[in-house]
Amino acid sequence: MKQINYYAEENRLERLSKIGDPLEKILKAINWEMFRELLNKAFHREPKGPGGRPPLDRVMMFKIVMLQKWYNIADDMTEYMINDRLSFQRFIGLSLDDRVPDAKTIWAFKEQLKENNIDLELFTLFAVLMEQQGVITRTGSIVDASFVDVPCQRNTRQENKTIKGGNIPEEWQKEGNENKYEQKDTDARWAKKNEELHYGYKNHVKVDKDSKMIVSFSVSAANVHDSKYFMELLDELDRDLWGDSAYLAKILLKEILETFPKIIFHLNEKGQKNKPLTDEQKANNLEKSRIRARVEHIFGHITNSMGGMFIRTIGIDRAIREIAMTNLAYNLQRFSYLQGAAKKAVA
């Protein structure tokens, strides 16, 4: 019989570090304790009495949610992978002897965050800290939007017509159909772009030009034009602003300049049927696109490295909170990369 090696776990983790564990880099780059006060706020309850099992560490549970976003895994698979992977266990601060949260506990934790709007506060907390530390430089901002798909609804034409009109189909409201109604998303909408159909929502973002970190965001139904949420993304610190031709509406730009007169627009121009772009306009668009394309790197990373912009939620309120956590997960990963790049530059 093979003798038990009591240092096997430690040796394996050491080997993972030498190979290069990306989670270990993020673990060391982020001060995770910064989130504890907000997380505790979401779970503040008056004790009913002495005794009972102590609650799981909230920062640990928050790390689990970030793992789900980075690896695009559902609650059941998350429970399995934490049990299976030493790298996951080290990241959240567990050893082989510790109890792993089950899928229901993970789901309940996320529900509690959503009920108290803590998801949005967590995103804002980290974004503000990045500005204070000078990571987000505010030398220029880029605005754009990306589709966030949700599972398609199987509705009749009449039901869809009623929903588009802002009403709820009568059949869904009848006694006995409560469960059916709860599974119907009446906020998501269809949209078509470049011959591609999308059903769900849009993630409107403002990105820092230098750091490629998301500074602010808004969420709308997929069929809402990008320009509708332009104003909502801006603030008094914005100066140079890049965007594509979707934001060119003169009435909108006039409204923005009345509120934020110091903003300088760098928006791509668009040719018209009887008025094509001149060579000079095309050259200017090319220069603007070199900077504007940085926001596409973010959407590309979320799509290719984080499993894509697809969520399994119902209703815009839940979508907002899911998208907030996705944007935060991206920012945390981006900050870790910037920290590593800075250390290499110094070395």
Put the structure in a nutshell:
The protein is α/β, with parallel strands linked by helices and 347 residues long. It has 16 helices and six strands. Helix 4 (58-71) crosses helix 16 and helix 5 crosses helix 7 (103-115).
Structure description:
This protein has 347 residues and is an alpha/beta fold. 50% of the residues lie in helices and 12% in strands. Strands 1, 2, 3, 4, 5 and 6 form a six-stranded mixed β-sheet that branches. β3 (196-208) and β4 form a beta hairpin. It is globular. The protein starts with 7 loop residues before the first helix and ends with a helix. The mean pLDDT is 89.
Topology:
Elements: H1 8-19, H2 22-29, H3 36-42, H4 58-71, H5 75-84, H6 86-92, H7 103-115, H8 118-132, E1 141-149, H9 157-164, H10 170-173, H11 178-182, E2 189-193, E3 196-208, E4 214-221, H12 230-233, E5 240-243, H13 250-259, E6 264-267, H14 279-292, H15 294-304, H16 316-346
Parallel strand pairs: 1-5, 5-6
Antiparallel strand pairs: 1-3, 2-3, 3-4
